[in-house]
Specification:
The complex is a heterodimer of chains A (133) and B (549).
Chain A lengths: L6 E7 L6 H12 L3 E9 L1 H11 L3 E6 L4 H14 L6 E5 L3 H10 L3 E3 L5 H13 L3
Parallel strand pairs in A: 1-2, 1-3, 3-4, 4-5
Helix pairs in contact in A: 3-4
Chain B lengths: L10 H11 L45 E6 L4 H13 L4 E5 L2 H4 L23 H7 L9 E5 L4 H14 L8 E4 L4 H7 L6 H18 L3 E2 L1 E4 L1 H5 L4 H21 L4 H5 L2 E7 L3 H22 L12 E5 L11 H15 L4 E3 L12 H17 L13 H24 L4 H10 L2 H18 L27 H17 L2 H15 L6 H10 L4 H12 L9
Parallel strand pairs in B: 1-2, 1-9, 2-3, 3-4, 4-5, 6-7, 7-8, 8-9
Helix pairs in contact in B: 2-4, 5-19, 9-11, 9-14, 9-15, 11-12, 11-14, 12-13, 14-15, 18-19, 18-20
The chains are: A alpha/beta (133), B alpha/beta (549).
């Protein structure tokens, strides 16, 4: 287990403005000792990649509540690869269980559904990062 | 009410006078066992009497049930049109439209921002052609329509007027509500386009237009629903919502509007969450506070302008993805609180909404839940049946007390103006900060097991994820809509569109002129929603929120 402080970008990709969940997640990760860079609403894949490079982060977390995970999720994965970054992508929000497998096949490191506990949120992010360390 | 010949009557006699004038539903007002019951119990002021704590009508649901207004919208306009007709056939009495994200944000289906969102969380409307499909074969003079849209509301209202026009229904026959509550967008829902001040100008134009031309239309539904969904407490929902209402009132007064005229057109939209008595106290306090402020602070003299009429929706955020069938019970309890709180209309959430958009079966159960409360439980026989109960009265007072503290803070921020205080609170992050703090507090309590959410952190056995039948919106909707938009663009006259858009930009830069007529002209040329939004954006600019956690 790695003792350094993990740095995580959280963002809302696209038009979806439901930000209750991601703000709670931001505080959970901070309370768990991580450094959180919250980019806010209406981000694009390129704005997220630019921030990830500039901030030298360990992971990217996106929150999706509008069923956009199967279109925007793959776009984000592609953008991470195109930028030559080796960063885990974690998606949270309303994602039906049956889509989890597909997202993971596409390269999404983890999916956090509604009702995930603070411990689950923190450990999921931590494990996704340490799996690549 | 307050006429000369009745001035020496006591409140009960006055109430009786009004009650006797009311038309009642043709049903025996007695218990299931045949015991006749009175229309009211307890002390005055009675329902229908200022400050309306006990309800806005003397006979409440004895005359008219609340409107069972189920929010629907998905896929293409044609898909939603079919769902509307199904709801009307099933006894629904009002239409309520959910738009997809691009439409809500003033983006067309072919915008790069729209990928993956077209027709997903609601219906896609790019041009008047989509609006024509949405309301095809529905007599607009006999339904009341609610449109849940804010940033580009002016364009959607213009489209509705245009569809009416095509079918020979004049604006003064159109009944309904458009949400058009931009302030709560900066505070909670985040579907804004322009900065707060130009947005208020657009809303003021719409208030002026509807007051003059559309007497059956409610131009703003001041909405606490989203504030609560974003995580606020009940008292914050109450206070932020009413304060936003005060802000619209101050803006309309400043624009020379008569408070008694536009005050009657305002309506509200609240959340009904799971803490039963807190919700009932909140609804009762909302009516009392609004009446007092409209009368004492803003000088309304017409009682109809003091009445807080509201729509209620059960709390989407309370629905759990785990053991979703349990949500039927949650929705039933929340809907009962809304009925006991005296709501004018109600949407009940479908049990599967924590997983996806509702299936038709789940939407039907949600409507049936309202019908069971309305027709089987007897709670509609007596107005404000809980009024006078010490706990309910205390809770009502407590909600009012907490709300008044928040109003005082906003007045401080705005040097005596709630409108300026609200702008200041948006700019300095007050609203989003308070809401995020409350949301996090709640999550921590759930996480620590101090709050039990059945099926989530206790009683977790019995979840069967494989049994679920979810509504999936396929990519074909997006493809269909893109083709439809392309066809409309090919068929229209680009010259007409360009001219109409130039006029919209001109009027946007002149706040003495009203935007509504120009936008009605523009939608009739089949200018798209995004083109119209951009025509105004040239003058108004855009709003970007500071990202704070």
């Amino acid at each position: 287990m790695n003792d350094r402080q993990y740095r995580v970008i959280l963002a809302k990709l696209g038009l979806d403005g439901h930000d209750r969940g991601i703000k709670v997640v931001a505080r959970i990760l901070r309370d768990a000792g991580m450094e959180v860079i919250y980019l806010g609403l209406r981000q694009t894949t390129s704005s997220i990649i630019a921030a990830a490079e500039e901030e030298d982060v360990d992971a990217i977390g996106l929150s999706m509540h509008n069923a956009g995970h199967l279109t925007l999720g793959p776009k984000m994965i592609e953008a991470i690869r195109d930028a030559g970054l080796d960063l885990p992508l974690i998606i949270g929000g309303i994602v039906p269980d049956e889509d989890n497998e597909q997202l993971k096949k596409l390269g999404v490191a983890a999916v956090l559904g509604p009702g995930a506990s603070a411990e689950e949120v923190a450990s999921t992010v931590r494990n996704a990062i340490s799996a690549r360390d | 009410m307050g006429t000369e010949e009745s001035s020496d009557l006591n409140p009960e006699e006055l109430w009786q006078l009004e009650y006797d004038k009311a038309q009642l539903r043709d049903t025996p007002f007695e218990t299931m066992s045949g015991v006749p019951v009175e229309p009211i119990y307890g002390d005055g002021p009675y329902p229908g009497q200022y400050p309306f704590t006990r309800g806005i009508y003397p006979s409440m649901y004895r005359s008219r049930m609340w409107t069972m207004r189920m929010f629907a919208g998905f896929g293409t306009a044609e898909d939603t049109n079919l769902r509307f007709k199904e709801l009307l056939r099933n006894g629904g009495t009002g239409l309520s439209t959910a738009f997809d994200m691009p439409t809500l944000m003033g983006r067309d289906s072919d915008s790069e921002w729209s990928l993956g969102e077209v027709g997903r969380a609601g219906v896609a409307v790019d041009t008047l052609a989509d609006m024509e499909d949405l309301f095809a074969d529905i007599d607009l003079s006999s339904v009341s329509t609610s449109m849940t849209i804010n940033g580009p509301a002016v364009t959607l209202l213009a489209m509705y007027v245009a569809v009416g026009d095509q079918n020979g229904v004049a604006p003064n026959q159109l009944a309904g509500t458009i949400q058009n509550d931009i302030l709560k967008e900066y505070q909670a829902q985040k579907e804004y386009i322009y900065p707060p001040r130009p947005s208020m100008r657009i809303i003021t134009d719409m208030v002026k237009y509807t007051t003059a031309e559309m007497p059956k239309w409610h131009p703003i539904s001041i909405s606490g629903y989203h504030i609560r969904e974003a995580g606020s407490t009940a008292a914050q929902e109450l206070a932020f919502t009413l304060a936003n209402g005060f802000a619209y009132v101050e803006a309309a007064i400043a624009a020379g509007q008569n408070i008694d005229e536009f005050g009657r057109r305002l309506s509200f939209f609240f959340n009904s969450h799971s803490d039963f008595f807190e919700e009932i106290g909140k609804f009762r306090a909302a009516r009392r506070i609004w009446a007092r402020w409209m009368k004492d602070r803003y000088g309304a003299t017409d009682e109809r302008a003091m009445m807080c009429r509201f729509h209620t929706q059960t709390a989407g955020v309370s629905l759990t993805a785990q053991q979703p069938e349990n949500n039927i019970a949650r929705v039933g309890i929340q809907a009962l609180a809304a009925a006991l709180g005296g709501t004018q209309s109600l949407h009940t959430d479908s049990f599967d909404e924590a997983l996806a958009l509702p299936t038709e079966d789940a939407a039907r159960i949600a409507l049936r839940t309202q019908q069971i409360i309305a027709h089987e439980t007897g709670v509609t026989n007596v107005a404000d049946p809980l009024g006078g109960a010490p706990y309910v009265e205390w809770m009502t007072d407590e909600m009012e007390r907490q709300a008044e503290e928040i109003f005082a803070h906003l007045e401080d921020l705005g040097d005596g103006s709630i409108l300026e205080g609200t702008f200041a609170g948006i700019e300095n992050g007050y609203f989003v900060g308070e809401i995020a703090d409350a949301a996090y507090r709640f999550e921590r309590e759930v996480n620590a097991g101090q709050r039990i959410i059945v099926g989530v952190n206790e009683f977790t056995e019995g979840d069967n994820p494989e049994d679920r039948n979810l509504l999936r919106i396929g990519a074909e909707t997006e493809e269909y809509q893109l083709k439809r938009l392309q066809n409309v663009k090919t068929d229209r006259s680009q010259n007409q569109v360009d001219e109409a858009l130039a006029v919209v930009t001109d009027i946007a830069s002149d706040s003495t002129r009203n935007l509504m007529p120009a936008i009605i002209t523009a939608v009739k040329t089949y200018a798209t929603e995004e083109e119209i939004a951009n025509a105004m954006e040239k003058v108004f600019g855009t709003y970007v929120e500071r990202a704070i956690v």
